[in-house]
Amino acid sequence: MSCILSIETSTDVCSVAVSEDGACIYHEEDFSGPNHAERLGTYIDEALSFADSHAIPLDAVAVSCGPGSYTGLRIGVSMAKGICYAINLPLIAIPTLELLCVPVLLGHEMEDDALICPMLDARRMEVYAAIYNRALKPVRDIQADIVNADTYREWLDSHPVYFFGNGAAKCMEAIQHPNAHFIEGIKPMAKNMFPLAEKRIALQQYEDVAYFTPFYLKDFVAKPSKPLL
Questions:
Q1: Which residues neighbour 42 within 8 Å (Cβ) at sequence distance 6 or greater?
Q2: Which pLDDT belongs to residue 223?
Q3: Residues forming a β-bridge with 3
Q4: Are the C-beta atoms of 114 and 156 separated by less than 8 Å?
Q5: Residue 36: how many CB atoms within 10 A of its CB?
Q6: DSSP letters for the chain
Q7: Contact (CB, 8 A) for 14 and 4
Q8: 3-class SS letters over 162-187
Q9: Which residues does 107 contact at the CB level (< 8 Å), separation at least 6?
Q10: By CB distance 3.0 to 4.6 Å, which of 28, 58, 156, 157 could disulfide with 179?
Q11: What percent of the chain has pLDDT over 90?
């Protein structure tokens, strides 16, 4: 197990956490944003002071890598890279949609064959979404979707599908399938990042600090949904 500083700025929420031995031991959150430029530096200073005062050496920095807000991700990733350079730590990138799945998988009961669909809001009836199974393996990769009654029908016809994230609320009226379920209140939070970060440490999946850039919303183009073959 490791000690990880986690940073999440992909949406309006700004959050920072410290985890040790697979448990969150410190976290700060601001829901009044977007206030990343104002809050993030202070939160990171406080998190680093907490780790230092408890004589806990950091092993890595994890940061949400999108898709998400251009400004939010740019601020979060820039801060994460600066810390990695300053104290020579490896950088871990956590996809925002995977991060959204953590509280759902840990806190909600669902059918064995259920699929989960995290969604980030875009303009009009567009969302940025992926579909995973309960083992968090991708059934369909991240893409931009224009949501209507048929967008996810191929999966809904054969599986219960749980939709969540800040893009899910606007889809409730459009998706009326009996296998569609909506979970409210799920946000990407730094305190939920450590299970994904620990896995990447075990697999030695680190980013090149000099060249790493996040996946902004603008990197995706809305297109019809199709399952992986």
A1: none
A2: 47
A3: 20
A4: no
A5: 27
A6: --EEEEEE-SSS-EEEEEEETTEEEEEEEE-S-S-HHHHHHHHHHHHHHHHHHTT----EEEEE--SS-HHHHHHHHHHHHHHHHHHT--EEEE-HHHHHHHHHHHH----TT-EEEEEEE-STTEEEEEEEETT--EEEEEEEEE--TTTTHHHHTTS-EEEESTTTGGGTTT---TTEEEE-S----GGG-HHHHHHHHHTT--B-TTT-----GGG--B-------
A7: no
A8: EEECCCCHHHCCCCCCCCEEEECCCC
A9: none
A10: 156
A11: 88
For strand 60-64 and strand 115-121, is the pairing parallel, antiparallel, or unpaired? unpaired
Return the residue matching tokens 């054969």.
158
**Number of neighbouring beta carbons within 10 Å of residue 75:** 20
pLDDT digits (tens, 9 = 90+) for 82-139: 999 999 999 999 999 999 999 999 999 999 999 999 999 987 889 999 999 999 999 9
Tokens of residue 158, six digits: 């054969």
Closest CA to 227 of 141, 135, 146, 159: 141
First to last CA, the chain: 36
